[in-house]
């Protein structure tokens, strides 16, 4: 493909790719990635106005734009955001929905943290380097070299804050990428594409975009402009990831334009082409925004699964975590959906038990991921029962010994007793079903999925303080993940296949208990349906996500951003466990 000049009058709708999609992820859907880039595929369905902002970075971007390009203070910029109950507004051409009060608190912190890191800047100003914000995005544009009919333009975009660093006659283009939590550098493919776009991309004419944003969202090629001055052509490129939580930075790339091109040729070109190539369909998180889901034969559908008949809300994703968090506190569920950075620990026995349980399940999951799959044995136990770690959690002393005892109890019931078992073994296997009556994508993950006698087995693992296992009805109420698996298990398995088995493995310091649940038994399905609908209906109907102080505040990981934090229980934020000793934290 050859670089494209600025004639756009007779061009067909653009194929627009965002650099972040090139990192290989097994659970991405190739068809969604293709239709997301292909603006000739068809117009997206008319959107439903969100009641609150659904992206943490959208208000932050607007605030930073107003600070850097309009000269406002952070507080003044935040005051220009729409308020609860209002409609979305456009700030420098981009729509911004009203942020929740907790998101607004995080946005203030994130903006000040980002700007503080920028001001610190590694001493560039002291060394005579001048950093100038750039309002116009950079895009890499191509036209195919061959082909018939109207030419299809390709545009490759990257997201971040743009700057020119002037050191005498030398110009460096810098892209600083804000992230909500700790820095986590992406894969080499994404870094290579990003650096190449920054190095060689053209300037989008942002004034033209602000005047008619809908034209470009609809697929018209971006209007561009040349460098304002010839000397603006860069000699070097920097790509930096910046944490909006603590201001820490990670340099992803720094080098010459030539080196950026070499990195792209080595790591970025083929992954970028792969995104544009036809591919299969993989149900998952991509199904929520996908424009082709109504014609997708791979996405299972279960009308009425959530017991809601209301398509007036914007399309969302629901899990048992969302429902359980909402039952504890609606604001907590909203902050979780936004992906706000969470606290690192919890106080009290609930937080300690959750951390221990997370370590136990992570340790077991690591052994179940081995290839070839094999049964867990005594050799797989922690070498030091008084201090070990798994899943990013360190456990010591009594907690470590209790957790090690749970791991030992698992050996007696590990389902991978046949090392030659046919078929793959899947750990934390994602299950995705569409409920078209509620316009909600329902997601869950099964702790372990394998075949037994030709039929699929979905086993959920959890930990508990005691060895008492409730009757089946009580168990489904206490373990809402298990209830959802009962409903999803039959939905994702073809009708002609053997019916799946749903199991729950409960690990305690004194023993292990495995309970099987028949998903075809009417009583089990009725109980499971009641459990799921009791969690889903209030979540679906809520448009305010008001914070409700109560017992959940003690271990809430988002308490730092909560507008009602002053009225909640004292103590630092904690980590809510997943599948660990608390039915309220099932996901």
Describe the structure using short key phrases.
globular, 32% helix, single chain, 15 helices, six-stranded mixed sheet, alpha+beta
Mind explaining what this structure looks like?
- There is one protein chain.
- The chain has 15 helices and 21 strands.
- Among the domains are: 2-21 and 52-276, no CATH class; 550-582, no CATH class.
- The chain has helices at 30-37, 57-70, 74-79, 101-120, 188-200, 206-211, 213-217, 257-276, 320-328, 330-338, 348-368, 397-410, 472-478, 480-492, 522-541, and strands at 2-3, 15-18, 89-91, 94-96, 130-134, 138-143, 154-157, 161-167, 170-179, 202-204, 224-225, 236-243, 249-256, 316-318, 387-390, 393-396, 426-435, 440-452, 455-463, 501-508, 511-517.
- The strands form five sheets. Strands 1, 2, 6, 7, 10 and 11 form a six-stranded mixed β-sheet that branches. Strands 14, 17, 18, 19, 20 and 21 form a six-stranded mixed β-sheet that branches.
- The protein is globular.
- The protein is α+β, with helices and mostly antiparallel strands and 587 residues long.
- The model is unreliable at 1-9 and 567-587 (pLDDT under 50).
């Amino acid at each position: 493909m050859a670089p494209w000049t600025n004639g756009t009058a007779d061009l067909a709708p653009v194929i627009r790719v965002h650099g972040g999609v090139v990192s290989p992820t097994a659970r991405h859907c190739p068809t969604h990635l293709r239709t997301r880039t292909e603006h000739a595929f068809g117009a997206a369905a008319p959107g439903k106005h969100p009641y609150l902002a659904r992206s943490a970075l959208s208000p932050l971007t607007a605030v930073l734009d107003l600070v850097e390009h309009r000269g406002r203070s952070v507080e003044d910029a935040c005051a220009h955001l729409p308020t609860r109950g209002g409609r979305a507004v456009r700030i420098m051409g981009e729509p911004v929905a009203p942020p929740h009060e907790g998101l607004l608190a995080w946005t203030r912190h994130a903006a000040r943290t980002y700007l503080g890191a920028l001001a610190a800047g590694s001493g560039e100003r002291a060394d005579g380097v001048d950093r100038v914000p750039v309002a116009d995005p950079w895009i890499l544009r191509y036209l195919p070299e061959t082909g018939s009919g109207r030419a299809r333009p390709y545009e490759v975009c990257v997201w971040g804050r743009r700057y020119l660093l002037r050191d005498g006659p030398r110009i460096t283009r810098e892209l600083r990428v804000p992230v909500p939590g700790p820095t986590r550098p992406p894969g080499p493919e994404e870094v290579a594409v990003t650096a190449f776009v920054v190095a060689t991309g053209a300037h989008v004419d942002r004034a033209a975009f602000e005047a008619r944003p809908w034209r470009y969202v609809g697929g018209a090629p971006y209007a561009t402009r040349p460098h304002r001055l010839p000397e603006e052509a860069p000699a070097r490129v920097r790509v930096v990831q910046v944490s909006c939580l603590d201001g820490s930075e990670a340099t992803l790339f720094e080098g010459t334009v030539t080196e950026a091109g070499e990195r792209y040729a080595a790591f970025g070109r083929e992954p970028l082409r792969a995104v544009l190539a036809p591919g299969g369909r993989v149900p998952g998180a991509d199904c929520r925004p996908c424009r082709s889901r109504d014609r997708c034969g791979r996405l299972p559908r279960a009308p009425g699964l959530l017991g809601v008949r209301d398509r007036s809300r914007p399309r969302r994703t629901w899990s048992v975590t969302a429902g359980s968090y909402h039952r504890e506190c609606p604001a907590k569920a909203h902050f979780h959906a936004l992906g706000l950075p969470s606290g690192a620990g919890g106080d009290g026995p609930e937080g300690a038990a959750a951390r221990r349980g997370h370590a136990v399940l992570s340790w077991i999951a690591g052994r179940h991921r081995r290839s070839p799959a094999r049964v867990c044995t005594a050799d797989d136990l922690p070498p030091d029962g008084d201090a070990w770690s798994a899943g990013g959690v360190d456990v010591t002393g009594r907690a470590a010994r209790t957790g090690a005892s749970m791991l030992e109890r698992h050996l007696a019931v590990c389902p991978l007793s046949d090392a030659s078992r046919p078929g793959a073994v899947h750990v934390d296997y994602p299950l995705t079903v569409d409920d078209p009556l509620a316009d909600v994508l329902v997601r869950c993950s099964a702790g372990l999925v394998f075949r037994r006698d030709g039929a699929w087995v979905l086993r959920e693992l959890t930990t508990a303080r005691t060895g008492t296992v409730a009757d089946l009805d009580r168990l489904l109420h206490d373990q809402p993940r298990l209830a959802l698996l009962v409903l999803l298990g039959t939905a994702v398995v073809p009708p002609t296949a053997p019916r799946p088995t749903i199991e729950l493995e409960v690990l305690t310091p004194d023993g292990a208990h495995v309970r099987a649940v028949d998903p075809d038994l009417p009583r089990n399905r009725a109980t499971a349906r009641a459990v799921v609908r009791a969690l889903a209906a209030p979540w679906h109907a809520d448009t305010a996500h008001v914070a409700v102080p109560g017992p959940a505040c003690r271990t809430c990981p988002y308490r730092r951003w909560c507008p009602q934090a002053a009225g909640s229980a004292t103590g630092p934020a904690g980590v809510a466990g997943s599948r660990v000793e608390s039915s309220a934290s099932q996901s």
